[in-house]
Amino acid sequence: MQVEVPGRQANVPGVHPAWLPLDAFRAAGTRRVLVLADDSEVAGTVRAEVADACERHGGAVVAPGAAGDLVLALSTAGDLPPAVQALRGQEPGPEGFVLGRRDGVTVVLADDPAGLLYGWFEVVRRGAAAFGTDWPAEVHRPALRRRMLDHWDNIDVHPVMGQVERGYSGGSIFWRDGVPHEDLTRVRAYGRLLAATGVNAVAINNVNVHATEARLLTDRLAEVAAIAAELRPYGIRVHLSVNFASPIALGGLDSADPLDESVRAWWARTTERVYETIPDFGGYVVKADSEGQPGPFAYGRSHADGANMLADALAPHGGVVHWRAFVYDHRQDWRDRSTDRARAAHDHFAPLDGLFRDNAILQVKYGPMDFQAREPISPVIAAMPATRLAVELQVTQEYTGQQRHVCYLGPMWSEVLGFRFWGPGERTVAEVAARGGLVAVSNVGDDPYWTGHPLAQANLYAFGRLAWAPELDPAAILDEWIGLTFPGGDDLVRGTLHEIMDGSWATYERYTAPLGVGFMVRPGHHYGPDVDGYEYTPWGTYHFADRDGVGVDRTRATGTGYTGQYPAPWSEVYESRSECPDELLLFFHHVPYEHVLQSGTTVIQHIYDTHFAGAEEAAGMRRAWEKLAGSVDPALYARVRERLDEQVRCAEEWRDQVNTYFLRKSGVPDAHGRRIC
């Protein structure tokens, strides 16, 4: 396996091409292609992509004035052919493009080189269908302005978290054992994969900024510049996670007070040097006053004070600061049921709405807890209309199987992005976040398959596609990924992958924590079941199961009051036991085991039924995959089979531990008489 990087003819030996194998370019590469663009670096990438595809597949790059089957043109180019002229008047906008086919010519028209690049990859995605019968012009514009991946990569190998925190795909593609990779060819190949999905920004280091990583801002800035140089040709801007206390750690000051003029001056000077080195630098990512990271609270200042200091330093250069809203008390008393981790982000940030600079983006996890397989949507997203918000997802599968389990997350993210806080017809989460963007923690490492589990590539692909167009059907996105990644695959391959992956999120949810209660994982590494693992710790991740019932009372009437953070109608829906959706019941309510769900079954029977069913479905995935022996690459087949073996084993472990735990707690037997350990 190898990745071909157009324009450099550089190979990455032994690395899977993911959704850009050579055959994916066959339909476009057999055509006569005309490119009318400027001399920018991204436009040069388009030319190189086209030239490489045509050279490999027998097509030709034609000169202006010659006839072409495919024309990629900037709207500012002169002497546009008639087929392109017919699309004039359409407004693609920043990064957008117009795509159409007329008189046998397929046309991509864009206002900027990034749009031209995205248009090229849309043609590649459509394959032969891009050159069929004529169709009217379509305007493609990104729905979210910033489509960003956060890497939790470390320079040094952390004694607990390793080279990549919550990384399940090997080491970092940027660093190894304290130094940058000498050959960054793979970084450019990564940028190419991301551009093909519409991603336009990458933060390259861990939000938990350790001592070595903090120096990327100053004396190790050349490493950031080298990475930026590899990603820039694909329209991707580099961002950097920074330590709020950098003026002390790096600048020799005795304070990091955001209102101290010497501190503000230090950030201004340091940021100016960053832009002198990397003129298109994107900005900073900050985790502050959370899980031990330093922040403005030490000086009696607010999160808005901290974010605005950095925003002011970045503003003259066009940069932004992403200030994470993941702030909560991680030293709770587990006996105190009035304290609620779910409330924390809203309690901290909602009162600050309107106080953040326009180039400060509040980055909010999609749920109030921590990337669980099922959570309600964070009420912070609805509570700050005067603040630019970015919604944060997790592509790396920390709580969804760690790339050892098949768990296609497109359906989950589609639900999140389409959620309407104020009821039918009102704005969606995606529309609220349009100015801030969509951000996700990357699942990529130096594994030959990029994502450890080959099928986990689909999550990375789906993130980019949904960040560009949140209304896309996740099943259709999966179908795109299958068609690109397994070119020439027959109906057996396509049908089997859909059989395994379409419902895999629901399967994972069935055999893990039930009805929205969350966690129940082994502390520390978060893999595998441990029902009481976090129950008596300071982390605030409780289920409160006892002999009488299970769940967290977050109602206004008798609980923590968390339901009151939602606008109507959801504040009332979640407050009510009878109206609360079954899948979130235990997140919002403590109920008896024999409480009857809307589905008609009791809570305890639901727990038994779903855990038996989930384990059976995992075994069914493995049986389905066995049908593809001989139909896919043998090495890929073996890797997936090995992961499915582990998924089946782990699903059975989840089934047995959860069912046994609740049988012993409740004393209620399984109505179907199945064996529970």
TrEMBL record:
Residues 451-674 form the Glycosyl hydrolase family 67 C-terminal domain. Residues 139-450 form the Glycosyl hydrolase family 67 catalytic domain. InterPro entries: A-glucoronidase_C_sf, GH, Glyco_hydro_67_aGlcAse, Glyco_hydro_67_C, Glyco_hydro_67_cat, Hex-like_dom2. Keywords: Carbohydrate metabolism, Glycosidase, Hydrolase, Polysaccharide degradation, Xylan degradation. The keyword Hydrolase applies. The keyword Hydrolase applies. SUPFAM superfamilies: (Trans)glycosidases, beta-N-acetylhexosaminidase-like domain. Belongs to the glycosyl hydrolase 67 family. This is Alpha-glucuronidase. It comes from Nonomuraea composti.
